[in-house]
Amino acid sequence: STPANGPVYTRWGHSSVLLRNPKLAIENNLVVEFYADTKGKDISYVKGIVGAYPISISVKTLEQKLFETTIYQGQNLERYILSLRTEEKDRFLRIIVDLLSHPEKIGSYTFLSQNCAGVLSKYFKLAGFGDVQSRLPKGVAERLFLIGLSPFPKIAVENMRSIRLRAETALGLNPGEIDKNRSLTEEQIKTL
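The structure assignment produced for this chain is given below.
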């Protein structure tokens, strides 16, 4: 997810991985993420820096993740597509299944390195796809990054609050009116 303007721990965004299964409807595919387990604890920046929080692993459907991120948290989602080999995906899934059975193997959360992105990166490398860029012709990834482009296709999902606000503006409605009415006329739908 993209950075948010909420609590400080949301300001750098969040990394997770979508496990795409073409046999399932997209919303039923699974999302794996790692996060600091702060439930029942005071959130402390010092504890986050020194690794005082355990890391938890979460598996949820894409539909649940979209609701949680775009509606509940009001953040946008950006998705980068990685081209992975079947054996790499299988190794990654075996690692995730093992971690779900033995979460103590994951270790402690730190804001700077053992965070959501750092932990995902570690398990990507263990699964054998730590250097996806190496599959591109030499120098292509570096040149693209220099001019602000990524060699990996990106799909963005905007948070529902901003979409709703733009729809209300386009329809000449007051903010929050779509939420109150929960239905639009056929004419309003055509306008959108």
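Interim note for the steering committee: The longest helix spans residues 86-101. The helical segments are 45-50, 62-72, 86-101, 116-127, 140-146, 160-171, 177-181, 186-191.
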